[in-house]
Design goal:
By secondary structure, the protein is an alpha/beta fold. It has eight helices and five strands, in the order βαβααβααβααβα. Helices cover 53% and strands 12% of the residues. The protein has a five-stranded parallel β-sheet, with helices on both faces. The radius of gyration is 17 Å and the shape is globular. The model has no long low-confidence stretch (mean pLDDT 92). It binds thymidine-5'-diphosphate. Thymidine-5'-diphosphate binds next to α1 and α4.
């Protein structure tokens, strides 16, 4: 994509790494500066994507092949980009997305062992080769974050447990996958060490403001 556009920020990390809390806080802070923010997520960022998400995450979706899983992740993303992300960027909004193609590389490429290349090839073909301007990788201790995700899954009695019920070896591969991606994408990806909610929030805001100083000279809430 070319021409003037908004900003695209993605959040990545293991299940239970605290992305959704941090996304809500960042969106709130930027909105309070009168900036136009679209906070969204994958899978499930569009109406069609919500239906794809329910197939992907439902623990009753037994026997979904890794390649079919990969294709559904990209079907969700292609729809999400065309319907929401690209138009929002064109309208110069700030798009904050909970997971994007790095998740596909980490979970399907490394976790399911389909390899990184097929993910990057599909991204180029199906996603207009659109990459975030900045990706915040929330680091978390492997065991703790998986336990938190499992708990959350059980306590909400949701049926969205297909990934959470994977074994430790799967999550270890995903974790290592994220590390490899971060080492390759040093310009785009910033790793955020785990900490308290307030501490992580402050680190994130510091990075966003130093990367995008145009976001800082906005008057605080005028509404
Ligand atoms: P979600 O409930 O959104 O989890 P979280 O809050 O931890 O992000 O579930 C998304 C699940 O889908 C998560 O386990 C990661 C997985 N996933 C993939 O395997 N590949 C992908 O490309 C994406 C976007 C998500």
């Amino acid at each position: 994509m070319s021409g003037k556009r908004g900003l695209f920020i993605s959040f990545e990390g293991l299940d239970g790494s605290g992305k959704s809390t941090q996304i809500a806080r960042l969106a709130e802070t930027l909105t309070a500066r009168s900036l136009d923010v679209l906070a969204t997520r994958e899978p499930g960022g569009s109406a069609i994507g919500k239906r794809i998400r329910s197939i992907l995450l439902d623990s009753r979706t037994a026997g979904l092949s890794p390649r079919a899983e990969l294709a559904l992740m990209f079907a969700d993303r292609a729809q999400h980009i065309e319907e929401h992300i690209a138009p929002a960027l064109k309208a110069e909004k700030i798009v904050i997305c909970d997971r994007y193609t790095d998740s596909t590389e980490a979970y399907q490429g490394f976790g399911r062992q389909l390899g990184a290349q097929v993910v990057l090839d599909l991204h180029r073909m199906l996603c207009q080769d659109l990459w975030p301007d900045l990706t915040l990788l929330l680091e978390s201790e492997l065991g703790a974050s998986v336990a938190r995700a499992r708990n959350r899954n059980q306590s909400s009695r949701s049926s969205e447990g297909r990934f959470e019920s994977e074994d430790a070896a799967f999550f270890r591969r995903v974790h290592e996958g994220f590390e490899k991606i971060a080492l390759r994408e040093t310009n785009r990806i910033v790793r955020i060490p785990a900490g308290t909610i307030q501490n992580v929030e402050a680190q994130i805001l510091g990075i966003v403001d130093s990367r995008f100083p145009q976001l800082t000279n906005r008057a605080a809430v005028t509404r």
